[in-house]
Amino acid sequence: MEELINKLKGEIIEQLNLEDVKKEDIDNDAPLFGEGLGLDSIDALELIVLLEKNYGIKVANPADGKKIFQSIRTMAQYIQDNKK
Amino acid sequence: MEAYIKGIGIISPQKTFDTKDFLSDVVEYDTNSLRCIEPSYRDYLNPTLARRMGRIIKMGIAASSVCFKDSGIAMPDAIMTGTALGCLEDTEKFLLAIIENDEQFLTPTSFVQSTHNTVSAQIALQLKCMNYNFTYVHKGFSFESSVLDGLMTIAEGNGKNILVGGHDEMTDKYYRVCDRVNYWKKETTPTMELIKSKTEGSIAGEGAAFFMLSADKSEKDYAKLRSIKFIYKPESQKEIETRLNEMLAEKGLKPADIDVVVYGNNGDTRYDGVYDQLRDSFFSNSTSAYFKHLCGEYQTSGSFAMWVAANILKTQSVPPSILIGDKKHSQIKNVLIYNGFMGTDHAAFLLSQC
Description:
Strand order of the largest sheet of chain B: 3-2-4-5-1-6-11-10-7-8-9
Mean pLDDT of chain A: 90
Order of helices and strands of chain A: HHHH
Number of domains of chain A: 1
Distance between the termini of chain A: 16 Å
Helix content of chain B: 25-40%
Strand content of chain A: under 5%
Order of helices and strands of chain B: EHHEHHHEHEHEEHEHEHHEEE
Oligomer: heterodimer
Low-confidence stretches of chain B: none
């Protein structure tokens, strides 16, 4: 799980161009949106594409997004549970 | 149709950003593709917003910010920009993603930022400016069109302070595409040797320059912009000279009244003859200057030329690095820019001392 979290952080930094953010700056349990990394709705779309492209996971129900993208840990957990 | 140039902000391959220095320390290049000397954007952009922006958007916002500061105008009555290529880097990113991912997994960011009007829109968003906002995409007439619109807006009384600008970026891919249609020189040409070269092709360039045009005169204005003319695909040298005579006559001037002419020589033997003939006959009494060895060839290079002309009038000097020949005038009242892009889109700007 820790390995996946670390990999995911790198992918998010690259995909969202978080130039000034390092992996160690991202708290595994901090909110991704609003506070924490301060991501917004465009970033949410980027993250959905990232899940599909890198892990083959399609977020079928948009309502699940709030739970999946709560933090890095919840995202990693979702990947671990759904990866094909 | 006249306006005062109240402020300027420019990012170019020279040290032009946020400085009053006028080409005292020219950067010489030994490459056929010049890139801008970019500032640190932290002072001009919110990092959260900046992370989504491509290079040309950051350059546009930073250059316009300096223009606002220089002019003392915080909120323009209109924003008009010109760009031939728009946000090319983001366009390439988006198109490449379509191909690489087989038309799937397309993310919104580069698409959203890839439109031609992104720069003028982002400037307006930063200012919360809801006034007239327009982007002209007319190849070699893009910047010139924004200037014409600015002058017309002031003449019609629809605004007093108008931000006009030109911006285009060079990318490796675009350089290669243009190279295939012989835009660029095949041999590496040191920039200071550009107009001495006797071969086809030019050197590639890029830049972002903004000007605050104002209806009101003030002490610190750079120059008065008095006229702009477009000459599309001139059929002969005679046609160019006739059009220039008309332009000058409208302002009560003759060719001999032009103290300095800033030419768009780009070192390409296919196109430089036009400038050389003007210099040798039509403007034979004027001081001659050129600029594309400093910024490279690009569709909105007229904006760099306008920065040069405005500073010639403001400083009453022609730096040695841009001078052609040795004719010099002790007082510089009138400057004319004659510039063209690849032989098709020719434009002339007339600027005078305030």
